[in-house]
Design goal:
alpha/beta, 4-stranded parallel beta sheet, single chain, binds pyridoxal-5'-phosphate, globular, 6-stranded mixed beta sheet
């Protein structure tokens, strides 16, 4: 099902290219034209089609209160007449969250969710497993009431979602000659996995900048890639060596803005008139700069803007 306007624009960042001594371009998935933009629109075109196909009356997902995925999912559900239920925590963490740094649980995506009629269930902060468990319980409760429920994993990450990003790779091949390297924010992983799968065996390297400090995220990415092979009947068999993940720009933790990220957000806004978001794309840009300054980045680089701008309005 079609939700976004494609192709999303792709253009050069002249001022920052000069500053960093790179040939730096940007893919504007912040401008998908759907529910204020972001990378989740591509995934949702497939996830919502799947929900409709199984005759879902309600979807259940989970995430952080300021999740960009939940906002875009809520808009897609509302558009096709499916209820959207989401279990959220202010900051799901495996460790004690530094609350004073975290995003507010009002405004930003929370406000947009209200406008869209998303059913948000706030849970006290806990671990990721606690969050997944609460989502399972909610789905079971709705099922007991007789509703046909479609469960959607956090961030919408599934093989179909990754598939959407293999198509996004085709999209940029129509827009520009090949890049040496693509840099993208990464967390639940279907964006990076789809792109990595698509560029496997080409001269284009895909580098994910982790926005989640968990070093094991690559295990999930390998699993997603295996499912993508199954879905497409291919045999790329991506392994840990195929995934380039840079972990030095996460800052205080997942879902918490970083000082460096906020500085870069301001810098890019002032130099290029483009807003990044504090949780993903600004940190990804910090990672890009770190790699450039360490001489570890190729010359002709594409930065993938994954959206997330509403989170700016929930910054402390
Ligand atoms: C969800 C999200 C990401 C991460 O994408 P994944 O496919 O979950 O890794 C990056 N940036 C923004 C703005 C997001 O909302």
């Amino acid at each position: 099902m079609s939700l976004i306007l494609r192709p999303t624009p792709l253009h050069r960042l002249d001022a920052i290219s000069d500053q960093l001594g790179l040939d730096l371009w940007i893919k504007r998935d912040d401008l998908t034209g759907f529910a204020l933009g972001g990378n989740k629109g591509r995934k949702l075109e497939f996830l919502i089609a799947q929900a409709i196909e199984i005759g879902a009356e309600a979807v259940v997902t989970c995430g952080a209160a300021q999740s960009n995925f939940i906002r875009q999912l809520g808009a897609a559900c509302s558009k096709v007449g499916i209820e959207c239920h989401a279990v959220v925590m202010a900051m799901p963490f495996e460790f004690e969250p530094p609350h004073e740094l975290g995003l507010k649980t009002s405004g930003g995506n929370c406000l947009l969710n209200e406008i869209l009629g998303v059913n948000l269930y706030f849970e006290p902060d806990g671990t990721w497993d606690d969050l997944y468990q609460r989502a399972r319980e909610l789905a079971e409760k709705l099922e007991k009431k007789g509703r046909k429920v479609f469960r959607i994993p956090i961030g919408g990450s599934s093989a179909l979602a990754a598939y959407a990003f293999t198509l996004a790779a085709d999209e940029i091949s129509q827009q520009a000659p090949p890049f040496d390297e693509i840099v993208v924010a990464t967390s639940s992983g279907s964006t990076q996995t789809g792109l990595t799968w698509a560029y496997r065996g080409t001269a284009t390297k895909v580098t994910g900048i982790a926005c989640d400090p968990e070093p094991d995220i690559v295990v999930d990415f390998i699993e997603l890639a295996a499912q993508l092979d199954l879905l497409l009947g291919t045999c790329k068999q991506l392994s840990a060596q195929d995934f380039y993940i840079h972990f030095d720009a996460v800052g205080p933790g997942y879902g918490v803005p970083s000082l460096e990220g906020n500085q870069v957000l301001q810098e890019v806004a002032r130099l290029e008139g483009i807003f990044l978001d504090p949780i993903y794309s600004a940190k990804a840009f910090v990672g890009l700069k770190q790699l450039a300054q360490a001489g570890r980045l190729s010359d002709r680089v594409l930065f993938w803007h994954t959206g997330g701008i509403p989170a700016i309005f929930a910054m402390p």
